[in-house]
Design a protein that fits this description.
mainly alpha
Length: 84
């Protein structure tokens, strides 16, 4: 599955503990990554500065659902269920 154009849910819903340019301590859940562009694309896509947790993430039906809203809901639920 390819990423849905105009989604960006995986750059908003989950927390990221890795260092991100613009957020050296990572980001909390529900906060858009500072590298998320206005059209919901990653400004670091294909660059070495992109965190491994992002570059290793692969779109899937289970994670992304059928719509951006489903992706945001599903990823938010996963974030809550896996919180330490």
């Amino acid at each position: 599955m390819e990423c849905r154009t105009g989604c960006g849910a995986c750059c908003i819903a989950p927390s990221i503990s890795s260092k991100i340019p613009g957020l050296p301590g990572g980001k909390p859940p529900g906060v858009p990554c500072p590298q998320l562009t206005p059209d919901f694309r990653c400004a670091l896509f294909g660059m070495k500065e992109r965190p491994n947790c992002c570059s290793g993430l692969k779109a899937s039906e289970e994670m992304c659902g059928q719509t951006r809203a489903e992706a945001l809901d599903g990823l938010t639920r996963l974030e809550v269920m896996t919180r330490p």
